[in-house]
Each structure stands twice: as structure tokens, then as C-alpha cells.
Amino acid sequence: MCGIVGYIGSKSALDILLDGLTNLEYRGYDSAGIAVNIDGMVELYKAEGKLQNLKDITEANRTHITKSTIGIGHIRWATHGAPTTINAHPHSCNCGKIAVVHNGIIENYKELRENLEKQGCVFRSQTDTETVAHLVAHKYAQTNDLTEAVRLATKEIEGAYALCVIHQDVKDTIVATRRNAPLLVGIGEGEYYLASDVPAIIQHTKKAMYIDDNQIVTLTPNSMKYIDTDKNVLEPKIEHLPWEPVALSKMGYKHFMLKEIHEQPDVVRNVLSGKLKAIDEKIKLDEVTLNANDFKNLTRIQIVACGTSLHAAMIGKYIIEDFCGIPVDVEPASEFIYRRTITDKNTLVIGVSQSGETADTITAVRQAKALGSHILIVTNRPDSTMAREANSLVPVNAGIEVSVAATKSYMAQVISFYLLAIYMAEVKESMELSELNKLKHELIVLPQKIEEVLAHKESIKACAKRFANAKDFIFIARGINFPTALEGALKLKEISYINATGYTAGELKHGPIAMLDESMPVLSILITGKVYEKILSNSEEAKARNARMIALTNSTDEKINDLFEAIIRVPEIDELVSPALAIVPLQLLAYYIAEFLGKDVDQPRNLAKSVTVE
Ligand code: F6R
Q: Which H/E stretch holds residue 336?
């Protein structure tokens, strides 16, 4: 949520900042801005709306702006103050010498602002960030040292922040710090980069250092000073970033979302690789540190997550309970954190997050950790804040996901839950070997089945065209595919803005059925197995109320042909593994409907990829 980029070195900063912001655009797209230092003057360029507006402004002044070899940039997802040019970052102080970009929320900004106003500061924006610019300016006036000014300011600000600050009078320096918001330094030859996320810098360097909470870095083209907010000098921990720049290309697809949907067969292969080697070998999860005894003592599992990750968690609940007989609760992290936390050392707490930076989920796992629970994190970002809270880690290896609507990371999370559940069942010896082997086989052949679905995408596109004008959409399923119905509905509503809801098919008759008429599409997830006949009769009930029926099915049963107006077919699959296949056509359906409606698929309105505020 919000993206930050910074550069200091000998190259022109402009394109590095703009390219960095382009690769962070998924983090927010309400407004954008940069600050550079040209001939000893800090200059701000800001624009409301998409990044292209800022690019147009900077293009008109390109010859002038390219002179700067230092700069900071920001892409905003508005929290305090409307998404206007005035509220766009960077923000400055009265004298205009300081520029600040910020990701997070300054919780005590009102008190700080009142105080600063009393001391003569004139605020131009409604943002919490502007208080930081004025505060740092005050501290600089007292100390004449930018690092010290930032350090003193951090002692007064409360909340979450990643901050980068430049000052006109120290034109070869950027100071950066963070608390509960991600920030990393990229290291080049005679140059440094700053970013809130890897995509902003990966095309320049793979050598990087993650800044931790309450740490401050001071960068010049040839030096990095690294301290904590108590002035202790720290030893930099330099890492090699395991990402490839190619992940940021659309590779010929019209949208990142479509590309990422197509990557899913390989994502499944990657997740399984090294963990599920052969049917008769046990699952290997190297970074899970619980032993057989720990598993024996577990009385309960609590999973916390948000959005799409929550849906993966719901599948996790179903299979862990089914394979291992351990009770599992799943709760949105945003709810979990505002009631009494009842976890203890016999509760395994699992946090699930693509980004590993979702504020609600981080808070939830920290609360549980404080009560002594073992924390297991399932994440696509082993380098994230959440991963650093983990006692055990399951890295999901989906690669960088750019589309705001999560697809391949969901697939990777779901597959990781299968591995985890089978791993636990093997440790606990809670399942017949033949059943385990059958499940492993289903996982190994899953990529080909997904490829088959992708090969028939034209039929899903045709279905999308037929239903694109619907105002509402209902998805129904039972059992293990109920989360698939929720996820299918979420995908559709977030990128097409059609009001879509997932229901357990059995609940339809307890209220939602009142909404059905000839204008309402009802998509039934009809997978052969335990609840097949039940969903079929629920679909009959919906049809009897004139709903427009769509089936998503692996069934070859002819009697469904008359019941459904459209049928999306998937290959034969075991019901227990079916959520990992059934979601793919739903992702494609949502994608094509949004495309037909002309929506901005990769950057849906009001959303941001990584939600770093509670
Ligand atoms: C939907 C989507 C969001 C995220 C949610 C949690 O497509 O992407 O619902 O799933 O914001 O994000 P993570 O998984 O990063 O914690």
C-alpha cells in the first residue's frame, strides 16, 4: 500500500524513479510524485491519478529534471486526505528545503500538527505525512544534521512508517527509516536504491539490505551509515535477492492477471518441487520446525489471513481437519485482532499472506506469538515482515505477483496447504497410506489438468461474453469448494465491480433464494463426490426460480445438460483436490467479464496490492 522508491548515485535519477514507480504501481495508483535536487534546489513534481499523469508532467521538463542524480518517489493509496495533487507525496516543510515520502499511517499526526501549527508551520495538505516534513525541518534547524533530525522525529511519531527524506542543503544524502512498513536498500557500484518492494529495484541490482524496525540508513553515492534509533551502529546484512526481472514483463499477455493465471501450472510444479518428490516418499518441509511430539501436543490450529489468502486458509481448514483430525479455526485477521486472543502454546497459529506485509495479519500473528503460540507463516515473500515473525515457514514460491487481483499466489497457497496437511498427516499417522498416495498422485498430475483448462479458455470467454451484462452474480458450492465459490465471487467483484456473492448451496433456501429471478446468474460448482447430488438439487431449486444457471463441473452426467444454460467443464479430479482446479476457470471468467466491460483489470479501483494499514 503506497510505494516508495529512492536513488542516489551518478546516473540521472528521473527514469530510475519513474521505472521504479511503474513497477510499484500495483501498490497504489491514486497519485504519484517525485522530489529531485537540481542545482542545489529541491523540486517536487506531483500529479493526481495514474502514474502516467506524473510521467506527462516530468516529460515536459525532462531536460531540466534529468540533471538530478538524487531523488525520491512515491505512488499513493490514499488513507488521510483525498487523492489530489496537493495530498500527493513528496511533502515538504515551510521553507521547501525538505522532501519526504511515506508509506504507512502516522497515528498521532493530529497532535503533532496542532503543535507544529502553533510553532508557525503552514500545512498545505490534509495528509498525516506532511507533519513528518515539518517535524524533520524543526529538528534539522536544531541539529543541522539530517540523520539526527530524522532520528529525533521518529522519537515523536507514532504509528507505521517507511520514510525517505532529502534536504536541499545536504544534496548528496538520503535518509531512510521504518517501523512496521517495508523498506529495503538496493546496493550498486557507487549508487544506492531505496524501495518499499523488490520490483522497484530488481532491474538494477540483486544486492540488497532489508531495513528493520527502528533502524535508520543514511546514504550517499559512496557510503551507507546504518544505525538504530538509539544511535547504535549496526552491521549491514547484505542479501542476494532471489527474483528475476523477467517476472515484471507481461510476456505478450494483455494483462498481468492473464499472464499470472497462465503461470499456474508451473507454479504448482514449483511449489511441489523438492517437497513432494515421489508418491512413496514423505513430504519434506524444511522450514517447519515442529516435531512429532509438538504435533502430539497440539490441541488446536488457528489460521489468520485476509481476502484471497483467507479463502486459501478455509481450504486449509477443511483438509487439515479431514486429514489430521485436528480442530482448525479460520478467522479474518482484522476480526481476530480486536477481540480476546485465545491461543496458547498448544495452539499452532498459521498466518497466510501473499505479501507478508498485510498489517492486520502481522498484528494477529504478533498477538498470538506473545501468548506463546508457535507461529507458522505461509507466504510468497520469505523476505517479508511476517516471515520474520515465523517459528516455521512455508514459502509458497509463486514468483512476483503484479496483478492486484491475486491468482497464482492463491494457487500456490492452496497447494502449500495440501503439502502441509499431508505432512501433518504423515507425522501424526492419521491417514491410510493408500489415501495419502492417491492425494499425492492427484497433486502431481494437477498441472496438466490446469493446462487443459487453459487450453479451453475460448469457451470460458464465450461464457463471459454471455453473462457480462449481469448486475449481480451468485456462486454456490458445498464442502471443500465453498471457499472456491467465495474466491470466484471475490475475483469477479474486485475487477468487474459486479455485485458477486458466494453461498454454501444449502444456505440458498434460507434467504438468498429470494433474490433469484430471470436476471440472476447462479454458478454452481458441481464436482463429483460427497455433495454432488446435494448441489444438483440446490441448483434445481434455483432453476425453478428462473435463475440463469451455469455449471462448473467435471461431471459427464447427461442430465445436467437441460438444467444449465452454460456449462464450464474441467477434467476429472478427486473432490479433495478439486479446489485447486476449479478456481482456474473462475479466474478466467472474472478476467474476461472485466475485459468485456472495459475495466482496468490489473489496477481495479480503490484497491492496492499490499494492505499495510489496519
Ligand atoms: C484479492 C486480493 C486481496 C488479498 C488481501 C490479503 O485478489 O489480492 O484480497 O488477498 O489483501 O493480502 P495478502 O495475501 O498479501 O496478505
A: helix 333-336
Torsion angle in degrees (nearest 10) through CA of 527, 531, 532, 536: -120
Burial of 432 (0-12, 13-18, 19+ CB in 10 A): exposed
Q: Measured from the CB, is residue 504 less than 6 Å from ligand 1?
A: no
Query: 609 and 25 in contact (C-beta within 8 Å)?
Result: no
Q: Whose CA is nearest to atom 11 of ligand 1?
A: 307
For 256-450, give the CATH class: alpha beta
Which of 255, 256, 308, 360 should be mutated for ligand 1, with most atoms under 8 A from CB? 308
Q: pTM higher than 0.90 for the full model?
A: no
Question: pLDDT, tens digit, for every residue of 88-112?
Answer: 999 999 999 999 999 988 999 999 9
Interval 540-544 mean pLDDT: 95
Decide: 334 in ligand 1 pocket, CB within 6 A: no
Q: 166 C-alpha vs ligand 1 centroid, how far in Å?
A: 32
| Bigger pLDDT: 296 vs 361 | 361
Atom number in ligand 1 closest to CA 405 = 7
CATH superfamily membership of 3-248: Aminohydrolase, N-terminal nucleophile (Ntn) domain (3.60.20.10)
Nearest residue by C-alpha to atom 16 in ligand 1: 353
Which residue has a Cα nearest atom 7 of ligand 1?
405
Q: How far is the CA of 494 from the centre of ligand 1 (A)?
A: 11
- Residue 208: the pLDDT is 96
Asked whether the domain spanning 256-450 has the same topology as the one spanning 3-248, the reply is no
Give which of 260, 266, 253 is closest to 406, Cα–Cα: 260
Q: How far is the CA of 226 from the centre of ligand 1 (A)?
A: 32
Assigned C-alpha cell, 129:
505525512
Give the C-alpha separation, 88 to 76, whole Å: 7
Summarised one tens digit per residue, pLDDT across range 316-356 is 999 999 999 999 999 999 999 998 888 888 999 999 999 99
Does 306 contact ligand 1 (Cβ within 6 A)?
Answer: yes
CATH match of 458-596 with 3.40.50.10490? yes
Cβ within 8 Å of residue 357, ≥6 positions away: 181, 182, 381, 384, 385, 386, 610, 612
Give the pairing of strands 192-195 and 3-8: antiparallel
Ligand 1 centre from 367 Cα, in Å? 20
Tell me what pLDDT residue 370 has: 94
User: Of all protein residues, whose CA lies closest to atom 5 belonging to ligand 1?
Assistant: 307
Percentage above 90 pLDDT, the chain: 85
What is the distance between the alpha carbons of residues 31 and 84, in angstroms, rounded to a whole number? 7
611 lines ligand 1 (CB under 6 A): yes
From the list 406, 9, 385, the residue with the least C-alpha distance to 197 is 385
Q: How do the domains of the chain map onto residue ranges? A: 3-248, 256-450, 458-596
